Amino acid sequence: MGMPAGASQAGVAMSDDDQARRARAEEALRRTSASTVLLDLGGHTATGFVISPEGHVVTSLHAVASARAITAVLPDGLRSPVVQVAAVDERRDLAVLCLSVPDLVPALQLGPATLPREGEALHVLQAHTDRPPEPRLLEVRAVQVLGEWLTLLELSRTLPEDASGSPVLDAKGEVVGLATAALANGRALGLVIPVRYITPLLKTPGPLRPLSALDAPRQRATRVRQVPQHPVGLLEGCAPPAVESVAALLGQAINVGAPAYNRGAVEGCYRLYAHTAEQLIDERDDCPGVQRALRDGLLRCEGLKDAEDRAWALRDTFDGLMDVIGRWRQSHPAPPAAASKRPPPKTYLN
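That's the Serine protease sequence above. Prediction below.
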């Protein structure tokens, strides 16, 4: 017996739907490729994409920071020098550059601010020097809220460094963000900065600036550190395993918090540090000196209104403890045969 007519028609209809979706995806990729540019930075490259008729190109700030010369290689092979910067968003790792001549490349329309969900498929479109832009099919591994300043997407796989700045498309072919290659807690990550942070950079344009504006993120005001100098006696009564456990937890918090802070997630960094301090105060009754130092750090935070100042106050507290632990280790060498195995640290953004 043959397949029932209803089943056959349903199968044909589903096949037509698949073909239509594929055709829409291919058209979206072609359209996006026409707006994607390769940024030649003299020794390395990055990707960017045009987002306005005036020739504004958005890319990852870290990829172009401190560049002395930038050349945009357009899809047709034309090379156009980039000599002006329209906007810089250090917190979210974004830079908007200006092509020297407008209307050379069609502007890409950004999608809605709605974020893709975990498990959704995305296309990352990376520019190359010797071939058309290459789409990478990835999935959203997680939606990460790192604080009030930044919500981002973690991808299912890592990205090469020169993919930073690539446009990211969802299954409908809409641009949902900008891809960036990152490293946190010793692990390479593929991330997406959502379009919700890109659009405002064009709504309030300021005066165009020279490429030296890309150096500004590195010219931070000098911060006066207040790292406590503890005597080794602070750890009196702490058993060696307890000291090593404290050091491991503090080190893990710094390894996660510092990259988050550098990407602009200042509030998230502070909360992580505060949670770590509270955890050690609750759990380490066998190290009263450590508890006392952490309470002092949290007390110092109570008088600070700015999240950045609070994050640095706890980082100073942690560094003071790591310093005294280092000096304690010199006077308490571990027995040669007592190499205890510790569980591996948790990975970032899990």
